[in-house]
Automatic annotation (TrEMBL):
Disordered: annotated span: 1-22
This protein's UniProt keywords: Kinase, Transferase
SUPFAM superfamilies listed in its UniProt record: YdhG-like
Record's compositionally biased regions (Basic residues): 1-11
Full protein name: Histidine kinase
Length: 159
């Protein structure tokens, strides 16, 4: 369910213990579809742990997506929630996430129906649009960059 963007976010209390992201060499469990099981966490470290644990060709794609977002949205906030990387402009207000499946990686644009042109994948939520990327796809990086920039300029979704 998509919540209102104005909801107040909760930050971990100072000194609160949080699970750290897996380190190089740590064994990561792959869930259904080869999606890495990474503990919820905020910042670049858990996102990089997720990307490193993505199986096969998906890891290079995850790096590519992360690089595009970081390059074109320099003040981006990052997190891993529900075993997926999230990108936003404010704490807990997100514009993009992605998730591994067996044969593709699904990008979720939370206000994708407002993008020009909108990504092709429809959702049961009218504002959400999906974009699936398969191993042999010829990714239009210019279009993906345009969507990322547009999405970052829109109000984020509370998740």
């Amino acid at each position: 369910m998509i919540a209102k963007a104005k909801a107040k976010s909760k930050k971990p209390a100072a000194g609160a213990k949080t699970k750290s992201a897996p380190k190089a060499g740590d064994k990561v469990v792959l869930l259904s579809g080869g999606n890495p099981q990474i503990a919820k966490g905020y910042g670049d470290e858990p996102v990089q742990a997720y990307i490193a644990a993505m199986p096969g060709w998906k890891s290079a794609l995850g790096k590519r997506i992360d690089t595009l977002v970081t390059r074109h949205v320099p003040k981006v906030h990052k997190a891993v929630k529900w075993n997926s990387p999230f990108y936003g402009m404010e704490h807990d207000l997100w514009f993009l996430s992605f998730h591994c499946f067996n044969k593709y990686v699904k990008l979720t644009f939370f206000r994708g129906s407002s993008l020009k042109p909108p990504p092709p994948g429809l959702s049961k939520y009218p504002a959400v649009r999906y974009f699936d990327i398969r191993e042999d796809d010829d990714l239009d990086e210019a279009q993906l960059t345009s969507w990322i920039k547009q999405a970052a300029a829109l109000p984020g979704e509370k998740m």
